[in-house]
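Lecture 7, part 2: worked example. A protein chain together with glutamic acid.
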Amino acid sequence: MSLQNTIYQSSIFLQACRQFDRAADILGLPTGVCERTKQPRRCVVVSLPVRLDNGKVETFEGYRVQHNLSTGPAKGGIRFHEHVTLGEVAALAMWMSWKCSLVGLPYGGAKGGVIVNTHSLSKPELERLSRRYMQEIAPFIGPNVDIPAPDVGTDEQVMAWMVDTYSNHAGHYDPGVITGKPMAIGGSLGRREATGESVAWFVKAYLGDLRIKPGETTVVIQGFGNVGSEAALALEAWGAKIIGISDFTGGFHNPKGINVREAISHVAKNRTLRGYMGGNPLTNNELMELPCMVLIPAALEQVINENNAANLKCRVLAEGANGPTTNAADKIIDARGDIEVIPDVLCNSGGVIVSYFEWLQNLQSYYWSKEEVFEKLHKQLAKAKASVEDKKCQYNCSRREAALLLGISRVIEAKTKRGLFP
Ligand code: GLU
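Predicted complex, written out as structure tokens:
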């Protein structure tokens, strides 16, 4: 069957499928294997009636897509955003499969999403929506089935409401069903920093390979949520200069260096960067094309596309977001040959790696120090980097292709060993 005619059809799902096809071509995989490996295993669509503060009821739509469960429980975040689509969630679930397999986690891939503009909700409304979503997906998930986590638009507090709702059903507290929880209820030290930490770790490692020093490193970050701000803090601490930041309200440029902590407290007070005084305002499009050593897209998909790929002025493109670069932009960047791309499934994998550590701690009821978490994280990142570089040489392909073909081939090996149910 053609995956272009499924309910997942969308430009983002197609982007994930095309990436898969490139890797499958390199590996020489048979078409039948490709089709069954790409297609999500199952999805649920849920309707979420929520009482608003004004007494009216609004019904939201939500999804959970489980792409693959061949190597363990499915794993992946829950996104709350007004532009969520089922096709987007399916693409994100597919990327989780390759990401978990690439970095050696015993997980499949999944993703969830709700179509909602969280900025239009009060805190009690957000709580009611989070609980309703969990109530509806509870029969489909579990610590051994599918383990959600935060993504764009959700955070520790949302995870806390969700794990509480699930546990009320179970009749006992069951922390292993969700990761990215607050520390007080079984979260892991280092989980909040983990995704940004892995972005920063890879930036430092690849700049090291290029013999570029912290003092020569200028960084532009598109998206200033959990991933962008934590990457900024880690790179600033290392000695890099953050010269541009942005969120959906616009960006700021400061060639002398943005004070990251000040920007973070501005967002904590005002919810967005709007009104920030620490740099010259510019648009997100202008920000992407600033001359810099490192560009970090850390928000949504497809921000690097055929309109701006030829104009990028960075040496390293570190993908904190999932799917920020379209297939057309990949081609342009590969042809240019002057940008080192650290692909999403590798670059932002620290989030799900520490989610795995959180889950292990929950299952054992035995908690680790932050040093232990970071030491284990860095080891896992170094191993993944080495295996990607190996494959890149072996197949003489791009780093994205190398990362994907590694992740994909491990999933296919597991599927082949288990066999098709007769
Ligand atoms: N949403 C994050 C990601 O895209 C984290 C997923 C997780 O921790 O399960 O990798």
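Residues 75-77, 149, 151, 179, 322, 348, 351-352, 355 surround glutamic acid (CB under 6 Å). The two ends are 20 Å apart (CA to CA). Keep this in mind for problem set question 3.
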